[in-house]
Amino acid sequence: MTKIIFLLFAALSFIAEAEAVERVVYQGTLQGVGTVIMELELAPSEEASSKMPNRYVGRYFYPRYGVDIPLSGTLDALVEPKTQYEINAEEGCEYNDCDMFVDFPKAHWKGRLTGAVYQGRRIDDETGKARTFSLRRVARYDPEKTQPGSVQAVTEAISGGVGSGLAYDAIIGMKQAPYEYLKLNGHAVPVGAERGDEKVAYQMWSDPRSVFKYPRLVRHPDAQVLKKINFLLEQRHWQMTLAALGCRATMYENSGPAAGSLGGYDDETIQVTHLTTTLMSLYESGSTFCGGAHPDNHFDPYTFDLIRGEYLDWNRLFKAFVPGEYGWDVDPAMVKVIERALSENDEDETGYSAQLVKEYFSLFFDQPGKLALAISGIGHWGGANLGVQAEVPFSELKSVLKPGARRYLDPDDE
User: Fold this and answer.
1) pLDDT tens digits, residue range 88-109?
2) Rounded to whole angstroms, what are the CA distances from 366 to 127, 210, 378, 380, 412?
3) What is the pTM of this model?
4) Which DSSP category does 129 fall into?
5) pLDDT of residue 151
6) Domain-located, residue 266
């Protein structure tokens, strides 16, 4: 079962494609089925052969499912393989001893590229049934030029864990990542009631293909802030949805217990814990798994600056972080706040807990008028320690408050 390389994308000509390594996205219809989005790329030269010098690799999906189906071959004979469940049912080869594209084809896309249109017939290898397809080029791009580093996870795909195929901080847009944008845009819808007050409120949204819910602002005094924050919230929602759908696509790579599932994202908890006209806090929590040694048990809080329309810089409010040898360390003044808060919780192992909080320190606003001190990103070995360790009333934060913090903490006093 050859590991699928989720490379992408086709060229207008063999020479131009080989030189530019462009990725090309096509959109169109498959007769009797509906819309199809396809992405192709000329395979690396070391993977080509004398028999197939112009081999392409890529993927396609049907929008109603959003699950990538791998492709490999020439433009006049792109092979779509069977899933690993289907391959195992045939008992045709031992683990890693066969090439799914050669030994277990499910269908062949036999087409021709004419200008910006790729068209032909998709032929089912078992039934012989043929359906015509016509796909038009909708995007050409080199991701390392439009967004350097954004595809760091593509060649690793999903193996060893849950991933989206894009760097987590990559922007998903028609210019930067058109294939992913076309997969995600327009699928999430609002669900449930609005929550908040007459000034600021949010509503949960859900893409039915990935199930879990993520918030969007529906009301805020500053329309530009609302737009900026909703962009950030949508991008987070989209990245998680990509990871969920990516896990479902591993049915083509392996037949493990998580293959073909949503990787646990359908059980993810996303909770808004604080919302004012100046601040919004939420956390993502769950246990995701799509293969590998262990699940990703996580508790990841995020806080947004609703004055500036961006992620909150905690140093704007508190003496929170200082430059350290390997990044950012907790400010000594904040360390004292942590130790005092944990001691007041009557922890049996206060020193140990305080050290963990300092090493895996996260802040967010939880209960009204309180700052939550949490452990996040600790890894599988310390998963039992994830989450809120203590909550500190604003009145006990005077030693770490920065000028102007009250504007954020007490917006009604402005």
Assistant:
1) 887 666 555 678 888 899 999 9
2) 58, 27, 20, 24, 18
3) 0.87
4) -
5) 54
6) no
- In SS3 terms, 299-325 reads as EEEEEEECCCCEECCHHHCECCEEEEC
| The two three-digit tokens of residue 16, written as one number | 């131009």
pLDDT in tens, 130-145: 999 999 999 998 877 6
Between 350-359 and 332-344, two packed helices, what is the crossing angle to 10 degrees? Answer: 140
* DSSP 8-class letter at 220: -
Which range marks the domain in which residue 121 is found?
14-141
135 assigned to some structural domain? yes
Look up residue 245 and give its amino acid: L
Give me the pLDDT at residue 413, please. Answer: 62
41 near 9, Cβ under 8 Å? yes
Q: Which amino acid is at 149?
A: G
Structure tokens at 305: 């600056």
Give the closest residue to 220 by CA, choosing from 274, 277, 273, 272: 277
Q: What is the CATH number of the domain that holds 27?
A: 2.40.128.120
- Among residues 123, 115, 103, the alpha carbon closest in space to that of 140 is found at 115
Identify whether the C-beta of residue 136 lies closer than 8 Å to the C-beta of residue 28.
yes
Q: What number of H helices and E strands is found in the chain? A: 9, 20
Q: Is the pLDDT of residue 161 over 80?
A: no
318: pLDDT strictly greater than 90: yes
Residue 114 maps to a domain: yes
* Total structural domains within the chain: 1
Pick the closest to residue 146 from 170, 181, 184, 175 (CA basis): 175
pLDDT in tens, 21-57: 688 999 999 999 999 999 999 876 555 444 455 789 9
Helix (H, G, I), strand (E, B) or coil at 158: coil
Residue 372 placed within a domain = no
SS3 of 291, please? coil
Cβ contacts of residue 414 below 8 Å, gap of 6+?
A: 407
pLDDT at 60 over 70: yes
Distance between CA atoms of residues 148 and 289, nearest Å: 28
